[in-house]
Design brief:
Elements lengths: L2 H11 L4 E4 L2 H8 L7 E5 L3 E5 L4 H6 L8 E4 L4 H11 L5 E4 L5 H11 L4 E4 L10 H24 L6 H14 L4 E2 L4 E4 L20 E6 L1 E3 L2 E2 L2 E7 L6 H19 L7 H14 L11 E3 L6 E5 L12 E4 L2 E4 L3 E4 L2 E5 L4 E3 L9 E2 L1
Parallel strand pairs: 1-5, 3-4, 5-6, 12-20
Antiparallel strand pairs: 1-2, 2-3, 7-10, 8-9, 9-12, 10-11, 13-14, 15-18, 16-17, 18-19
InterPro entries: Creatin/AminoP/Spt16_N (IPR029149), Creatinase/aminopeptidase-like (IPR036005), Creatinase_N (IPR000587), Pept_M24 (IPR000994), Pept_M24_MAP (IPR001714), Peptidase_M24B (IPR050659), Peptidase_M24B_aminopep-P_CS (IPR001131)
Keywords: Aminopeptidase, Hydrolase, Metal-binding, Protease
Organism: Williamsoniiplasma luminosum
Length: 358
């Protein structure tokens, strides 16, 4: 289903005459044009993209603008212009993104548009299934991520700090053609590995420690997200770390093997958690198994104990179990996949088995 059809279906289900899109993420998804500010108005007849003076020239020069019938610059009179369109097309009921607009903004919309029937609508599932172009951008972002991990393994050595590794990762992504990082790089060495979203510190990485590296990038506005945990040196300074690495590896393998169209995302999470719990570590795996990724690093579908989402071909998801033991350390392994009719396609291809960096 193309993007206009997705919004038309949403309008039909909610008995709407039009939809006013405000979030930069949904505007980019629909039009393929980045802007921090703008309004996208979708009616039953046309689509209108309104941009201010910072963006309008770039948009007019863009050769691959998608799904836009009318492109206009705007200034202080934007609300008069939108009101004129609503009157001309006899629009009385408008939808807006429930998870984006603040209450005060909704009141302002009502006042400026002189319309009372504004309906908040959950739009979080609009972007779940990617089209071919979107998948290609995510594939490229993941390919860059694979290259960066190779660079890391060739560069890292004992004595380097977590912050220095994070800086190296940032530079490497730009060198390989990424737009920017998709999130702040997570580096967690030694006992810091017990913190799932650890912030890099001045701590030096030493032999015998596990190092968890969670990183990703944007390419043409679409994200990658990969986590690897590797051993600095040849021998573990705590044999329990070897045990939990093997458990997480097998747990992730189980989760990946269950990915296919028609599968309940929540069932995958529950099966993986059960496996980890049977090994005696269930209390140390306390986050969802994974999430969708695309224009945002975390988006639908989510794989958690509460999820009832049925996987569909074209969904891009992560599978990322972890075990985190305070005072000991932790392990997380994360990959990006595309759901297919009969299973999945791996996007992140860096080695999943334990690597010992000498």
């Amino acid at each position: 289903m193309n993007k206009k059809a997705i919004i038309n279906q949403c309008m039909k289900e909610n008995n709407l005459d039009a939809f006013l899109i405000y979030s930069p993420e949904n505007r980019y998804w629909f039009s393929r044009f980045h802007s921090s500010m703008g309004y996208l108005l979708v009616t039953k007849n046309k689509t209108y993209l309104f941009l201010d003076s910072r963006y309008i020239t770039m948009a007019r020069e863009k050769t691959d603008l998608q799904n836009i019938d009318v492109l206009e610059g705007f200034g202080p009179n934007i609300w008069h212009r939108i009101s004129d369109i609503l009157k001309a097309e006899k629009i009385s009921k408008i939808g807006f993104e429930a998870d984006w607009l603040k209450y005060q903004e909704v009141l302002n919309f009502k006042k400026q548009l002189k319309i009372e029937d504004l309906m908040p609508v959950d739009t979080s599932k609009w972007r779940m299934v990617k089209d071919d172009w979107e998948i290609k951008q995510i594939q490229k972002a993941c390919a860059i991520t694979n290259q960066v991990y190779e660079d890391v393994l060739g560069w890292i050595k004992p004595g380097i700090t977590e912050k220095a590794l994070a800086r190296f990762v940032s530079d490497a992504f730009l060198k390989h053609g990424a737009d920017k990082l998709s999130f702040d790089t997570i580096v967690a060495s030694g006992i810091n590995g017990s913190k799932p979203h650890a912030v890099p510190t001045d701590k030096k990485i030493v032999e015998g420690e596990l190092v968890t590296l969670d990183m990703g990038c944007f390419y043409n506005g679409y994200a990658s997200d990969q986590t690897r945990t590797f051993l600095m040196g040849n021998e573990f300074n705590n044999p329990q770390l070897s045990t939990i690495y093997n458990i997480v590896y097998e747990a992730q393998s189980l989760g990946i093997s269950m990915v296919k169209a028609g599968q309940n995302a929540g069932d995958i999470h529950r099966a993986v958690w059960k496996y980890i719990d049977e090994q005696g570590y269930g209390q140390y795996f306390d986050h969802g198994l994974g999430h969708g990724l695309g224009i945002e690093i975390h988006e639908e579908p989510y794989e958690s104990s509460l999820s009832q989402t049925i996987l569909q071909p074209g969904m891009t998801i992560t599978v990322e179990p972890g075990i985190y033991i305070p005072g000991v350390g932790g392990v997380r392994i994360e990959d990006d996949l595309i759901v297919t009719e009969n299973g999945y396609e791996m996007l992140t291809t860096s080695p999943r088995k334990l690597i010992k960096v000498n």
